[in-house]
């Protein structure tokens, strides 16, 4: 498989990736950041998988059941047809407003026609495949366990003969059946009928969830698929949002830019929540706000750039040297040392989210006193630290610099804090905060603008362009039609665009020069073109970029400039939220034009 031709299934507790031929190649249980039970994605031999083996005459086709996270892989050989409906159960519990989302995967095998048959390769490798995984056939299930390094177990329930399954013998299919992979042993024995019911309940959950999302005139299908993907990357228990479901998928094949993304970056998650609340899902927004509030017990506590999904503050990075890595790209990392970095932009992003929630859900927000305390705390921290250099949005591991994006977001923190103060009627703070906001703005205009290049640059005193400065306009720092912004967009197009795809930056970082496109940057660029009035060009680039998604409309973090293959961790929350923002802009524009036509 040369591309990331995977579908994601999930239930807001964990997720799994299934290839377009129906192979379950990645899953961590019981939750997103647990050790893997299937990791063929990161090592063909030692990772472990759960595959349907069919003869070469079979063709496969894969799609989602519309408006759900249920993935259907269809196997057909003339008249002989069957489908595998993959999902992780999620539905309402009776009457208490909570959800049933156990750490398990159901692979419902649906008989369609003819006399299909298949074999199964059931090969979980627990604990990242570090020790030996043994299988034991019991009366009701197959137990897989490892105990060399750490004791762990996995249970397989199935309507098919367990010994036949384990020995990879032919299974003729004449009626529906199922496989159920569970982290915990079941109290009540599963049946095919019960699995069919789980499938229907999960389908209803997702259809109801999507029904709460507005319908858009243009790109509605893409918006819905991206929204479901973002929802699947949300951890129900705490409200945290993951950057991606995977670890160590490389930004460039064979290189070492491989990171663990199964954590909650404040920046990414805040942007996701902003978009999700735009789509009307206020509970996700409220729970994420609570996640942040719970992280800030002390008024002087500096926010980390990222946390574990259960609010862990220490995310020690280590390598799994026994795994070969995706397409041989080592090392495989778990944990992420970036949690120690200083990035001054996160305060502005957080203030922006707080302000947005107060505007959108003003009558429905608890903890307003805590939000006001957080607002004052953020202003205090920004006032003390905004002049200091940091690692920036791209997490350079070398020396700190005065990154333009970080400075702009310090300005955003003050701008939004002033607006929050007005909402709460705290006028005594406004004069002092406004003076600081103006000081930061002047500093940026004086030091981030390079008159030789005629653009805002990556960091103070540099000549390097950086796609992140395109966000100056969406965050309200500068007007879209301001000549300085228009010139910056044009300079970035000339300097960072490659066949319609954007580099984040072109200057060398800690690992050399970047050689793949960062997907979210291309979306930012398309939005900027749209805002400065180049709408046709923006639309053309957007439609072309959508064509680079995988067969299910999913995006990873990066795209290779030459081959256009997807690279980096997958699916990437950042990419999908930027897709939604672009799509909503185009859709609104079309609606406005139709209104004007009808008036005319």
TrEMBL record:
This is Glycoside hydrolase family 15 protein. GO terms for molecular function: hydrolase activity, hydrolyzing O-glycosyl compounds. Signal peptide: none annotated. Keywords: Hydrolase. It holds the Pfam family Glyco_hydro_15. Residues 220-583 form the GH15-like domain. Gene3D superfamilies: 1.50.10.10. InterPro entries: 6-hairpin_glycosidase_sf (IPR008928), 6hp_glycosidase-like_sf (IPR012341), GH15-like (IPR011613), Trehalase-like_N (IPR045582). Residues 8-140 form the Trehalase-like N-terminal domain. The keyword Lyase does not apply. The lineage of its organism: Bacteria, Pseudomonadati, Bacteroidota, Flavobacteriia, Flavobacteriales. It comes from the Bacteria.
